[in-house]
Amino acid sequence: MPSPSQRGLWTSCLAQLIVVLDISVVNVALPSIQADLGLGRVSASWVAMAYSLGFAGLLLVGARLADVVGTARLLAWSVGTFTLASLIGGLATDGWVLIAARAAQGISAAALSPATFTLLTTTHAEGPGRTRAIAVWTAVSLAGGGMGNIVSGVLTDLISWRATLLINLPIGLGVLISALVLHRRTPDQRRAGRIDLLGAGLATAAFTCATYALSVPGEGAMRGLPVVVGTTAVALFIALFVQQHRTPHTLVPGALARDRLIVLGNIATALTGACFQVGLWYFLTYRMQTQFGYSPIQAGLAFLPLTASMLVVNLWLTPRLMKRRTPRSLIVAGVVSTVPGLIWLTVLDHGPFALTILVPTVAIGIGGGLMNTPLATLVTTGVRPEYAGAASGLMNTAKQFGGTIGLAAATTAAAITGTDRAAFLLMAAAVVAVIAAAATIPTHRCGPQHT
């Protein structure tokens, strides 16, 4: 019988797989979805963004739920609703139904994903064992994202884009069974506390308005609409700031919000998310299918070098380097590898596969593999058990909101300039900014940790 740590690891990884799979599983299918449901290019991007917004908006609440109601119990509840939303999305005949189902998936994932990471940090003590577990969990996250593109291409070509969502049914059932077994055999450590639903609602509304304000110019919207929606977003952010200062039950515990290492680490995480979370896969998908003429299967398989390079570096090389190098130095090394690859995509958008896809995506994959585990380790090491869920939720929130805002801005930049080169250039700028954040990240915490 597997030990609690072993059971926690594979249950966490399987649950995280379904979460990250659905971040990318519709990517290669988007051109087919767009044609089948009669969506515009920017509207089709909301099929991807709706998931990320629902995910990010309630992640901090989901993280607190893991602390309050129990990790294994929350895993079972959230994966059940996630699977139901997948069924509705797979059967949708209207664009708005699909977008709503994707948002519901994201909301469910907001509870599911923090629970997977919290399970790791509570079943693995700090040290090499936890570092290895985080590396495996991060590798599954990276592999799941890449696998989603491959699965999306194969299913779209051979069956239908609908299968990219319906495939979640058997996976979700497997996670549900394992979560119920874990709940029976591992006692949940529940803690008293209240959930700040108002704060979560304000945060979700604010980021949704900000994302919409950034994306509507690409749809040729009325000139004043982005200003109105953007102003609403600013007002909502101000309301969120005031509400968080007045409530005793904040979305982010004060101990974490005052920790400079965690704040800067999550800023860097958001900036990397602007490239790696959605944008890179989204624009490569459209470039390969609409510009290069690849079929969905060919486009999905073309992501293999990117996925494989990230997976190998993250799972094999990065844990070894972390024994001899600081996380900050590995983050900088990742930026140095990623940015030339993005610039390459900006400069060269035609030619043989080896030059237009293979070389730049391998460089980007190596960079992503070097950055992800050090960032995840930075923002969770030294966090007291009662803040474990909040810390992992904050990390995932930064990643998802960074990805959503990044995709919206990049989509508009591409629409306005008439070329996806602007999108890759914007992603490169975001990754370069990671160096500025990493340069100010302290090497060690000073004083008591989260007391």
Automatic annotation (TrEMBL):
A GO cellular-component term linked to this record: plasma membrane
One MF annotation (Gene Ontology) recorded for this entry: transmembrane transporter activity
Main location as per UniProt: membrane
Boundaries of every Major facilitator superfamily (MFS) profile domain copy: 8-445
InterPro entries with a match to the protein in the record: MFS, MFS_dom, MFS_trans_sf
Annotated localization: Cell membrane
Protein's membrane topology: Multi-pass membrane protein
Positions of transmembrane segments: 9-30, 42-62, 74-93, 99-122, 134-155, 161-183, 195-215, 221-242, 263-284, 296-317, 329-347, 353-379, 422-441
Gene3D superfamilies referenced in this protein's UniProt entry, alphabetically: MFS general substrate transporter like domains (1.20.1250.20), Multidrug resistance protein D (1.20.1720.10)
A Pfam family matched in the record: MFS_1
UniProt keyword terms in alphabetical order: Cell membrane, Membrane, Transmembrane, Transmembrane helix, Transport
Official protein name in the record: Major Facilitator Superfamily protein
Originating species: Ruania alba
